[in-house]
């Protein structure tokens, strides 16, 4: 019985023709032994010794019986296995439903809820008439009619419908809710986009199909119809965000931004010195007031030299802004002396900037101090 192709029950050919839609069907009936397809390379054999009884081949459709039997046609031989017959060999080619399939429609119902703002909304129009029975989705005229044609979804995903219907595929329907809740609820609308999720350029993982079977008895023989379905699977992906104005987070974010760029301290000083009643007290605490020197002989090089018991440096005869050490030392400025407490005034006298720069860059070395 296993050496020859089994006879299918009456009506099997008609069932095959009816079953060819967006899927392929195989009419099988139970038999204890079946010949493995010659397309399985490991199933070919020359004698019974090539077929180990009880061995399982992942592509061989069942356990091997240990017999090497002739194939249905030709001179080749294959190992016999226990299983359903005939085995699936991919002979039935998927025949999609032509021009009808792109017009199939899909209804995608979705609703969102933001508990922090107590806001909820759905993607269906709140109308009581038969609007949903006669509409299809359109970005401009019917944004709240989530009834999509299959051809429209495939087109928006940038795919070819004929190729996708033959091999199957997975398309993601992405619904995005980005809402500004300071505006009216009518401004919070869903935005749809579609893209293919399965890698179509990878043969091992592209496409989409699955198998299922229907079991029954015909004339006492257990029979099944094995269906390998090719189709388009739609995965709905929803994401979004909502926001609303709040004073406290705004102040915190503003203060953080000002502090990060160093404006905070300047702004606080300006407010205290301008608008506070005790701005003069804050000014005295904030700034050290200085006075210009009364005479050059009281400068710190002379004072430091006298304190160390050495002769003070002789002032240079140069005039103008020349220092007491001569032209090689560069222009010198007599350092300011602190004002006495009684002499504090409301106006601060700033030391010349050029003198401070010279004092920092080339400090004078009194004669004899380098030897300490």
UniProtKB/TrEMBL annotation:
One Pfam short name: P2X_receptor
Transmembrane intervals: 254-276
Highest taxon of source: Eukaryota
Start and end residues of each stretch annotated as Disordered: 311-337, 350-372
Record flagged with keyword Chloroplast: no
Record's keyword terms, sorted: Ion channel, Ion transport, Ligand-gated ion channel, Membrane, Receptor, Transmembrane, Transmembrane helix, Transport
Gene Ontology molecular-function annotations: extracellularly ATP-gated monoatomic cation channel activity; purinergic nucleotide receptor activity
Localization of this protein: Endomembrane system; Membrane
GO CC, any one term: plasma membrane
GO biological process annotation, one example: response to ATP
Membrane topology category: Multi-pass membrane protein
Coiled coil regions in record: none
InterPro entries named in the record: P2X_extracellular_dom_sf, P2X_purnocptor, P2X_receptor
Major localisation: membrane
Functional note: Receptor for ATP that acts as a ligand-gated ion channel.
Family (UniProt): Belongs to the P2X receptor family.
Protein name per Swiss-Prot or TrEMBL: P2X purinoceptor
